[in-house]
From TrEMBL:
Keywords: Membrane, Transmembrane, Transmembrane helix. It comes from the Bacteria. Residues 101-120 have a biased composition (Basic and acidic residues). The chain crosses the membrane at residues 177-202, 222-244. This is Peptidase M48 domain-containing protein. Residues 96-142 are annotated as: Disordered.
Length: 844
């Protein structure tokens, strides 16, 4: 039977946010009428739940499984096989059993404490030959005793083994490299030939015009054909040009920035010693990112010179021991170790990354003439042409990616194994299995935090400290999740993704090498940063963007399932554009708009989505500028010397600052009026759906609507808190050592405390809000006492800023839960009426 057009449902080994695994197993057992032990297999990553499904059936199954809390994906039929997964699980179980026996043997051979693994207990094992056991025990005991804590008074050289026993030459294979270079060069060869054809074709077409003039045969047909041919070649050239952009530009993302020397303590020196010990390339520059990935994306010249950039994930620095964090660094640098091997890795890994970047650019309407996706002026027609043509190229790019993977699979596996050996050389092959387990858990925690932060971004919020959130999530993983992650290690990793943790096959290959550890001391990489927490907060905020509100980690990480459900409902109802403030509970005043029915209202909103997104972005930008200008004007009035650029001003003139603030205020008021008009139509849509409900459902919806109206007295105070939090952050950032802003700081602290107290009074006087437990959550002791010293004053500003942000986010979170509860029956009513919904708006 042909499987073309059929699909399979595959488990991702994870539950949706806020769902407990045991509850998902119970629901799955009821859904499929199977015992719970059998349903527990559905939590295995890569487990095929249903196969040979039509498209409609696959979507129906996926929706049903998502409803019970299991995260699944749809793949073409036959891509995954449960028999292969079961075989890999058996291999993992045998490896785990062998590891436990080895642990017991090692415990008998040494009395020294093991820093990296505290779970081993001394025990007498088996009835084996003493002659066979003693050499292995003594050698392993010596290796374990070598891992001892690092003293800060010792030099960094004492972190590494004195006698260099790791030889990079021992893990190179000339035959593998030569056989891998030829197929790896096919993909870049295709693009180079296409580039040459386009350049030659455009030049040849344009040459026909002067040639016709020389021969006396110039006419309109020759000119038209020449220009059309040249234009075609130029369009093709612009379409393929993203492939030739530097890989650093293609892989750059918000939050990534270079680490300065003032932010680290001898980190480059430590990396230099690591390179010397393992024979790795030198680190040219360190780029920091908030997540857990550690990778290198060098250019061709950097590969040749063997001086590479390093992208260091701060989540890995915070969550892993220093030896294991350096093992990830060694693996990332080991991929490109040696000019020939590095060139092979540059072709194999870089080629796939470039195709993925091209695909992302075409899917998100990016082009060579406008990489931001927002063309202006003469860019618009060319940009639109490239976007339209790019959609037709997407299937071709996917086929090129499949071709590249088919040709370079052997080379990719070789590079993957070679990089693993460098990681094992850093920590020793004996502990590589335990390291791989922690690596898998770190990747899992990183994915969970990324999903939480992505959902928060839809509401204009972001995590305060992403690395700390990853560390907290890693420490809070329950036993069932850890067991599922360990079983998922049987799933083969993707060799073209250097960030994927080692699977069982890779672990078995490393365990046979018996490589000694080059890093012999236990330490924390955190000690090599001057202010890691401040740095983590800075890159976390930069990764979210300036229009997001920073929210404490505990609030987003501890949210219940109702918050997640509300986020999903708001995402659908407002087409990924939910209001950042309270929804206006007033219908529009214009008679023409007020007289529309439900379908006409939705159609009107559909035509305003692009404008709504622009208004939201404009409002956030104007609000930030206005707050900065007002604070700058207040500082100028207090005769404080400021830098105008820090406060969005052009000069230090008080009159000019007040005029600019007045202009921004009028622009902000006009933008907010336009936003209120659009969101008033959303409220009209809500009212029309309620009016069409049955009487019982209508009464329930009206009750929820009254609960929403209880939040309206909080609106002005929430707006003030948002402005105060931004002002306090600016004050703390630019606070002078002499504290000349003392009186202004006192004023803003007092205003913030007064607003917080007003919020508590309003919430305490409302029975509806007290029933939602907002009063106990907002029990914040806001103090306005002014410290005397610079550090304490900055800490007081930051503490008050955190209180303002926390109060604002708690109230908005409770409001969104109530709004989502109201919108669920409205969406169901629209579906029952067969109303054409809003189309999904493409986001960037």
């Amino acid at each position: 039977m042909s499987t073309e057009g059929l699909f399979q449902i595959v488990s991702m080994g994870r539950t949706l946010y806020g769902k407990k695994p045991e509850l998902v197993v119970q629901d799955a057992a009821r859904l499929f009428s199977i015992p719970e032990p059998q349903a527990r297999r559905l939590l295995l990553k890569g487990w095929v739940i249903k196969d040979q499904l039509a498209s409609a059936q696959a979507l129906k199954y996926r929706a049903g499984l998502h409803n019970i809390g299991l995260r699944v994906k749809v793949y073409p039929a036959g891509r995954f096989d449960n028999l292969q997964l079961i075989a890999r699980i058996q291999v993992a179980q045998r490896r785990s059993a062998q590891g436990s026996k080895s642990d017991r043997s090692e415990g008998r051979g040494t009395h020294a404490p093991v820093i990296e693994d505290k779970s081993r207990n001394p025990a007498v094992h088996g009835q084996q030959s003493r002659a066979r056991r003693q050499p292995a025990v003594s050698s392993k005991g010596a290796a374990l005793r070598a891992v001892r804590p690092f003293n800060a008074s010792d030099g960094m050289e004492h972190l590494f083994r004195d006698d260099k026993t790791f030889s990079p030459a021992g893990i190179s294979a000339a035959g593998e490299v030569i056989l891998g270079l030829i197929p790896a060069a096919v993909l870049p060869g295709i693009f180079i030939l296409l580039l040459g054809f386009c350049v030659y074709g455009a030049g040849y077409a344009l040459w026909q015009i002067p040639l016709a003039v020389w021969q006396g045969e110039l006419n309109g047909v020759v000119v038209a054909l020449s220009l059309v041919a040249a234009a075609f070649c130029i369009v093709v050239l612009l379409l393929v040009s993203p492939y030739f952009r530097p890989l650093r530009d293609l892989q750059s993302k918000p939050g990534m920035r270079a680490l300065s020397r003032s932010e680290s303590r001898e980190l480059l020196r430590l990396l230099e010693l690591l390179s010397t010990s393992l024979g790795l390339p030198k680190v040219q520059r360190v780029w920091i990112v908030p997540d857990a990935r550690v990778f290198s994306a060098p250019s061709f010249s950097q590969v040749v010179s063997q001086v590479l950039p390093l992208h260091l994930g701060l989540a890995g620095v915070v969550a892993l021991p220093g030896r294991e964090a350096l093992a990830l660094v060694a693996r990332a640098m080991g991929l490109y170790c040696g000019r020939v091997n590095g060139f092979l890795a540059w072709l194999v890994l870089g080629g796939g990354s470039r195709l993925e970047s091209m695909q992302w650019a075409l899917e998100n309407e990016r082009s060579a003439v406008c990489n931001s996706g927002r063309p202006s002026g003469l860019q618009k027609p060319v940009h639109r042409l490239l976007v339209i043509c790019g959609h037709f190229l997407l299937p071709l790019i996917e086929r090129l990616d499949n071709l590249h993977r088919a040709l370079t699979s052997r080379a990719a596996r070789y590079l993957e194994a070679r990089a693993d050996l460098y990681a094992a050389g850093a920590i020793g092959s004996e502990v590589f299995a335990k390291f791989a387990q922690r690596w898998h858990r770190l990747v899992h925690a990183d994915l969970l935090v990324a999903e939480i932060n992505r959902d928060a971004l839809l509401l204009g919020q972001c995590l305060e400290n992403i690395p700390a959130a990853v560390q907290w999530t890693l420490e809070k993983l329950d036993r069932e999740t850890c067991k599922a992650i360990e079983l998922a290690m049987a799933q083969a990793s993707d060799p073209w993704d250097s960030g994927q943790a080692a699977d069982d096959t890779r672990i078995s290959a490393i365990s046979q090498q018996r490589l000694p550890a080059q890093i012999t001391r236990a330490f924390s990489l955190r000690d090599f940063f001057c202010d890691l927490d401040g740095l983590a907060r800075a890159v976390s905020l930069a990764s979210a963007g300036p229009d997001c509100q920073v929210v404490p980690n505990r609030q987003l990480l501890s949210s219940n399932s109702g918050v997640q459900e509300a986020v999903d409902v708001l995402d659908v109802y407002f087409n990924r554009l939910p209001p950042h403030t309270l929804l206006p509970l007033e219908r529009p005043a214009a008679e023409q708009v007020k007289g529309m029915d439900l379908q006409a209202t939705i159609d009107w909103l559909r035509g305003k989505l692009i404008e709504l997104r622009g208004l939201r972005e404009q409002r956030q930008g104007l609000l930030g500028c206005l707050v900065a200008m007002q604070l700058g004007a207040a500082l100028i009035r207090a005769k404080v010397q400021i830098s105008p650029q820090d406060y969005s001003l052009e000069s230090t003139s008080l009159t000019a600052a007040q005029e600019m603030a007045a202009v921004k205020r009028s622009e902000l008021e006009e933008t907010e009026r336009q936003l209120q008009k659009v969101y008033a139509i959303f409220y009209q849509r809500l009212c029309l759906a309620i009016a069409l409900m049955p009487s019982k459902a209508q009464q329930s919806a009206q009750c929820h609507l009254r609960q929403l109206s209880a939040y309206e007295p909080l609106a002005p105070h929430l707006e003030q808190l948002a402005g105060y939090s931004k002002s306090l952050a600016l004050l703390a950032r630019h606070l002078t050592p002499e504290m000349v802003e003392r009186e202004l700081v006192k004023k803003y602290l007092a205003l913030s405390a007064r607003t917080l107290n007003a919020l508590q009074v309003i919430v305490g006087s409302s029975e509806t809000l007290k029933a939602q437990d907002l009063h106990s959550i907002l029990d914040i002791k806001a103090k306005s006492d002014l410290p005397r010293h610079h550090r304490e004053m900055r800490a007081a500003l930051q503490a008050m800023e955190s209180r303002c942000r926390y109060a604002n986010s708690v109230i908005m979170q409770g409001y969104r839960v109530q709004l989502g509860t109201l919108l669920i029956p409205c969406l169901e009513q629209e579906q029952q009426l067969g109303v054409k919904p809003l189309r999904l708006l493409r986001t960037v």
